[in-house]
Amino acid sequence: MELYDVMRTTFAAREFTGEPLPDNVLDRILDNARFAPSGGNRQAGHIIVVNDPNMRESLAKATAPGARRYFAQIKAGESPWNPVSPTTVSAASIAATAVPESVLSPLRTASVVLVVCVDLRLIAATDQDLHRVGVISGASIYPLVWNILLSARAEGYGGTLTTMAVAQEPQVRDLLGIPDTHAVAAVLPIGKPVKQLTKLRRNGVDEFVTRERFDGAPYLTGNS
After folding, report:
1. What is the pLDDT of residue 223?
2. DSSP-assigned letter for residue 121
3. What is the DSSP string of 151-211?
4. Pick from 155, 146, 156: which is nearest to 194 by CA?
5. Tens digits of per-residue pLDDT, 178-210?
6. Within 13 Å, how many C-alpha atoms sit on residue 45's CB side?
7. Dist CA 138 CA 73 (whole Å)
8. CA distance 36 to 34
9. Residue 52 in 3-state DSSP?
10. What domains lie within the chain, and their CATH numbers?
């Protein structure tokens, strides 16, 4: 596939055919994804390839609590897990919320699950002293995560970037033997999608790009 076609058609695949992902294809996906940029070329990522069904079931169980809160907040009209607007949903309501099977099943039905970690000793979190949630450290790992998904798409496979298990990171650390020096950044179920989407819905460029200032004129494509 052409690069722009891959970029415009890489969707969040959650339903898989059960077809295996051959080792040589996974090799190509990871071998190409590794060229993602990172601050100072420190390459802080570590990927755990999880095939064992019991381990994957444990990852699904670790995903459930975070997902339960997510859907409880949506039901309450909140922006889930948002640090600017803390939740008002009670613990009892969260506990009583069902998690859709579509959230957990990809971890069970994907051909492989990749757990992506980042070495905290190698990140440059330039926003660590600001009075807001940190986001900059993601630059050390999420280009690698996205390269994996782009590479999977180019090979005719797909996946989705999940982070719900991170809410239970100590449990995930124990499960996979992850040291305290590393954080869990993403859990990626990868497999052959049941459907291959070719058209995605996204905001137009003029809806989120402005000129010169945040409140500047919209950047209108074709008028540069």
Report:
1. 57
2. G
3. HHHHTT-EE--B-GGGGGHHHHHHHHT--TTEEEEEEEEEE-BSS---------GGGT-BS
4. 156
5. 999 999 999 999 999 999 888 899 999 999 999
6. 30
7. 24
8. 5
9. coil
10. 3-195 (3.40.109.10)
How confident is the model over 139-159, as pLDDT tens digits?
999 999 999 999 999 999 999
Instruction: Please answer whether residues 94 and 64 qualify as being in contact, where contact means their C-beta atoms are separated by less than 8 angstroms.
Output: no
- The answer to whether 28 and 22 are in contact (CB under 8 A) is no
Instruction: Collect contacts of 97-103 with beta carbons under 8 A, ≥24 apart.
Output: 97/68, 97/69, 97/71, 97/72, 98/68, 98/71, 99/64, 99/67, 99/68, 99/71, 100/67, 100/71, 102/14, 102/15, 103/63, 103/67, 103/164
Hunting for tokens 């190409």 — which residue is that? 32
Token representation of residue 183: 């954080």
Cα–Cα distance measured from residue 33 to residue 150, given in angstroms and rounded to the nearest whole number:
8
Tell me the one-letter amino acid at 123.
I
Residue for token pair 């009583």: 96
